[in-house]
Amino acid sequence: MAQAAEPLLAFHAGGVRYGIPAAQVRAVAPLPALTAVPLAPPALIGLANLRGEATPVIALSRLLDRPEGAPGRLLLIESSSRFALAIDAVEGVVGPDDAPECPPLETRLAEIFTDRRTLGGRAPTATRAREMAQDEDRLPLLRFMLGDQHFALPLDEIEQVLRVPEAIASLPRSDGVALGTLDYRGGLLPLLSLAALLALPRGDASGARILVAVIGQQRVGLLVDAVDRVIHAPVSRIDPVPAALLRGEAEAVVAGIYRPVAGERLVSVLAAGDLLSRDQIARLAPARPEASAAPGPEIETEALLLVRVGGHRLGFPLAAIDGVARVPERITRLPGAPDFLAGLGRLRGESCPIVDLPVHLGEVARPVRGGAILLCRIAGAPAGLKVDEVAGIVRAPAALLRAAGSLGTSRTRPFERVLALDGGERFALVLSADALFDQVEADLLQAFERTLAEPA
């Protein structure tokens, strides 16, 4: 509550006139584009980019259980917490003789946001999965398919994974390697067939993807038949190519052979810098200077898998995902299981539980058709997360990753960070895989405990 002599900023929300100590208001702004947060309390209507930070936006009418108005303005509040209030209109600073009602913000926030350490506070620094990816004894690789063979490139040599667009400017009289150019980040991206570059036959193109790599000072798109998974290969299991096999150019670009455990197929590890000769690099169509410059080694980035779940864009640390698979044709529903557990399905030869992530994050239950399965491990066991769509892999600069702070309850705890998109206008919520998996495991145990407790 404000002191009697303290100047107040008067405003309106839901037909009621309120006031707040003017010293707590850091800015007044129009209501910007918001990023919705799954499972958040109704009063939290989204995140906004305010002064370069992901800021929780609270609808004051909902917070106070009052009729909703027509919010069009924001008040950026900094007291013991940092958040923004969505209100209808600002009146101005008033004196004690015209003091309006002061809403009990701190009390109501404490009641509703039960996991509220500090709105806008800092998230944990890293997860176990990220630490594993940075283990110096392991090399993160992106495995992909060319025909029926497995290949891989070091993850730090890949900038992004793209779907094949419809608009590709083809090159006449091409040698089969240079497929054309496409628009990428305001410049032209040369597109090459990696299969043709390695003198290999093309396979099924239905799952084709483009790997964006930097070779020399040039960004290059490499067309592959399918992207399989990220693997964290122990360096001790990557062997040099036997000298007797180094006969031609295709074999010479193979930097090593990865020997997976459990009898899986060998993987040929490529090095992006060895794929093209200097003459080939010089003949590539030049992109705009800002698009062709190789990113400096001082820029810290993190690889994220972007997915769509309902109306939300989410990102997973790529280190936490073992791969992407199609939704199995047959999923066996388990009696008494919660709605978000779609059932058991066969993934890579194993019977695994499949979690319907849209339902787990608050979407309405619907038949499990289409979409994709993210392969992961929950409580140490293989499992699948069903999502609506996989958008691709991005290498996000650390400058675009920001702490989301606490967003309300234990249910929203997995959303630790946000990735700024569209010039900072919107965000993709970045999930902490550990926190999400812990939450899924806890929810499953709780659901089955309820089932066992019910009378037969």
From TrEMBL:
In terms of Pfam families, this protein maps to: CheW
Q: Which InterPro entries match?
A: CheW (IPR039315), CheW-like_dom_sf (IPR036061), CheW-lke_dom (IPR002545)
Q: Where is the CheW-like domain?
A: 5-138, 138-281, 301-442
List where this protein forms a coiled coil.
Answer: none
Cite the Gene3D superfamilies for this sequence: CheA-289, Domain 4, SH3 Domains
Q: Which protein, by its recorded name, is this?
A: Purine-binding chemotaxis protein CheW
Organism in which the protein naturally occurs? Sphingobium lignivorans
